[in-house]
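Duplicate of #3305? Posting structure anyway:
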């Protein structure tokens, strides 16, 4: 619900975060587009369009881009109910951290051609976990 989203945004703000992205599954993107807030939907008679989606959510704590994400997992990282979580992210607080930098290696010679491959280890680094939030176990259908 919109109240849950507002609660998470308030919590992120109180912890020093400034979230700028909401990622949700397809079903919850459509639910979020149904939030009325303090707005009115407009249509343009000239180009015969009715706008029914929300791509930007303006809150008391800032403006957030709303993006559908088909890879959001369900509760506890399971795929059983894909897309049931809403992630509220401050994108500047995430980075790629290299555990082992790129290295060029040579496999065993098997043919006349020289072969090479790249090896690297990396992970997603949360620079400030509390600057981000989530609403878990949302309806998915």
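Output from current build:
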């Amino acid at each position: 619900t919109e109240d849950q989203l507002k609660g998470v945004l308030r919590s992120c703000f109180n912890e020093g975060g400034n979230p700028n992205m909401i990622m949700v599954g397809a079903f919850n993107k459509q639910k979020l587009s149904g939030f009325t807030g303090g707005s009115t939907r407009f249509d343009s008679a000239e180009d015969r369009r009715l706008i029914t989606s929300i791509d930007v959510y303006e809150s008391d704590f800032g403006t957030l881009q709303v993006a559908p994400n088909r890879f959001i997992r369900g509760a506890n990282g399971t795929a059983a109910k894909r897309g049931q979580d809403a992630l509220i992210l401050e994108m500047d607080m995430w980075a790629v951290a290299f555990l082992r930098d790129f290295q060029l290696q040579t496999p065993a010679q098997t043919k006349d051609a020289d072969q090479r491959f790249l090896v690297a280890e990396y992970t997603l680094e949360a620079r400030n976990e509390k600057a981000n939030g989530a609403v878990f176990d949302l309806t998915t259908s």
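Confirmed duplicate; merging threads. Residues 2-91+128-135 form one domain. The helical segments are 2-14, 26-33.
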